[in-house]
Amino acid sequence: MRAPKYFRLRDGRAEKLTAHAAGLERDIQNIFEADLEPLLGVRLLASEYSFPGGRMDTLGLDKRNRLVVIEYKRHSAPKIIQQARAYAKFLEQNPQESYRLVKRKLGDDDFGSFVEHANPKDVRRICIANEFTEENRALFEESKNIELVLYQLLRRDGMEDEILTLEWVPNKAPDGILPAPSRDTKPPKRSKGEINYKPMKKVSGEQKARLDALLAFFRSLGSDVEFEEKKKYCKVMHQPPRAFATFVLTNSEEKIAIGVHFDLNQVEVIEGFPEDVSGITPAGKNLGGGRKVNYRINIRSDKNLERAKPLLRRAYEEAKR
Questions:
Q1: Containing H/E element for 48?
Q2: HSE (CB half, 13 Å, CA atoms) of 132?
Q3: pTM for this structure?
Q4: How far is CA 312 from CA 42, 259, 295, 319, in A?
Q5: Which one of 39, 119, 121, 214 is at 20 to 30 Å from 7 when CA atoms are compared?
Q6: Would you tell me how many other CB atoms lie within 10 Å of the CB of residue 22?
Q7: Using alpha carbons only, how large is the chain's radius of gyration in Å?
């Protein structure tokens, strides 16, 4: 089987690119740590994280609130899986070690959300190398919650700019960069698609139509919008685990109550729309990042929904600042 060839098309011509490994192991680590979220969907917690018995190349946190151990090898990786497994095992057996670091990085509010969703026995392992041995691949087949990622650096002769390629073994990158649920964990509640928020099953008629329109509007705000179902309410997030809104279905009144956060000095309240709830504690009050619900938008009609859209867009944009 022939090795793949790479070309860059420029001005109608094909320029051949040469594949190579990083000069040093630290070089590839620096590349990933500089852009960890777009490359792997992981937030950087620590580089060269030392603990009793070893030192992890990279420790991170993914969008499912899972701790992530990342190990790099410049070229081949005979012992990389064993290392990643050993480090992850330490974290699973000693969650207090890493949780202190997570709290410093996230702050009190977001740390509370992390603890609520985190599973200390489910640490994600990512092994990155330019080549994996047959022993690596055999061990990979026997292991749970391990990702093998082949990297290559591509360069045109005489040029300094490089292209990075990533290939997940066995040739399948996790959807949205995030891994498929491991065989011993429950599937995530968070979804960009269908929501399993139980009260929605009882909604019908005009209220259901307004709810469908509301969810479509939330999704239209940006590709980063996600939902998370709670027992009594549903969170709408732009940057998990941070939220920019929450909503509750009130079937007895056929209304949708949406909680948002605004600067109190810059919102014009007309006839109680939106309703100031800064002095009470509505369901889903904590939005994360030190932000709490201080206004509630009650949707009882199509006119209410249209009137709410500029406010919801503003809440989304303010939360991203």
A1: strand 42-51
A2: 26
A3: 0.52
A4: 28, 10, 11, 11
A5: 39
A6: 21
A7: 23
Structure tokens at 270: 């007309």
Residue found under tokens 């990702």: 147
Spatial CB neighbours of 113, under 8 Å, sequence gap ≥ 6:
65, 241, 286, 288
Alpha-carbon distance 48 to 54, whole Å? 10
| 257, 213 Cβ separation under 8 angstroms | no
Structure tokens at 228: 């998370």
Amino acid at 182: S
Q: Decide if 232 contacts 200 (C-beta within 8 A).
A: no
Query: How far does CA 149 lie from the centroid of its chain?
Result: 19
148-155 long-range contacts, CB within 8 A, separation 24+: 148/81, 149/40, 151/28, 152/19, 152/20, 152/21, 153/19, 153/20, 153/21, 153/22, 154/6, 154/17, 154/18, 154/19, 154/20, 155/17, 155/18, 155/20
Closest CA to 295 of 317, 277, 307: 277
Query: The tokens of 231 are what?
Result: 């027992």
Task: State both tokens at 101.
Answer: 């670091």
Distances (CA, A) of 143 to 82, 95, 127, 238, 276: 10, 21, 12, 33, 52
The tens digit of pLDDT for each residue in 47-69 reads 999 888 789 999 999 888 889 99
User: Which pair of structure tokens corresponds to residue 29?
Assistant: 């680590």
The 10s digit of each residue's pLDDT in 201-223 is 566 677 778 888 888 888 887 77
> Which amino acid appears at position 186 of this protein?
K
- Residue 271, sorted as left (phi over 0), alpha (psi -120 to 50) or beta, turns out to be left
